[in-house]
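Let's study a protein:

===
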Amino acid sequence: MALVLALLVPFWPGSVSASVEDAQRERWFQPGERFEYNVRWGIFNVGRAVIEVLEPRELDGRPARGFRMTARTNSFADAFYKVRDVNESWTDPDVEGSYLYITDISEGSYRRDFELRFFAHNGTAELWSRETGLHKNTVRIYPGTLDPLSVLFAFRAHPAPLTVGTVIRQAVTDGKKYVLGQATVVARETVKTPAGEFDAFCVVPDIRDLGGVFAKSPDAALLIWVTADERRLPVMVKSKVLVGYFTAELVDYRE
């Protein structure tokens, strides 16, 4: 669902050094890492979302890291707005640039099945329909541009320590537009979720360039809490939009 995706995978800025040590990279995240979230609209539970790290593979002869997010509404929400979404991202091993981003979206009567191909060598990203095979759009990009899912992991891997007041920026595209995303660390506090209690930083992304429900909400707000350790686990997200308040809380984490 577009809203759930926006909640859990906003424009998380981050970029890692090109000379990252292998030992440091191994501490970021490994295949099999999995986050499961419960999503609430006000007091109502409306669905679940899962983010996971995939087994590495080769993509066009290049080693690649993979990430996947799935979101689905429960039987209660299915009655008025059924959602079955899958988003998949493939990047270079250091998460410094995207190779491929796939979106398979089913939300109510809306369908979207696109593939975004990144061509860093000529500074473009091309959006293609996987249903029709037709080219939909081309955007200009710069080296280090990421897709909306991989930016979460780039943020986690960013070498700079987080402190209140830290601002991090990252180039990102969804195939429709190219933006320089920005996020600011605004507080450090304890948060409680079904998965436990966490010492966490509260991060506020700049959502002016986020489309969908955020673009329609003049007083929209988005808050993300990540653990205050080197893992930077995303444990909770809260939003205020035109249709009310949404909360995504971590219910299960597996390494």
